[in-house]
Amino acid sequence: MKKETFNQTITLHESISISIEVKNSFDRLLKKGVYKELHRRKMLSDGQLDMLLSSNDMNGGSADEE
Q: What pLDDT, on a 0 to 100 scale, did the predictor assign at position 6?
């Protein structure tokens, strides 16, 4: 049986389901927030932050999102 990825959902709880696209978007935004927090705490340099944000861009995220 062939599964269609554009219609798949993840069930978080009996009554809560989200699409794979929403989950992936949330994951990208969460990673970006962690990167920015590490930079704010001086645990990442400007160059490291740029590299991580641009790699997030290549994986479907956007470095310009807030």
A: 54
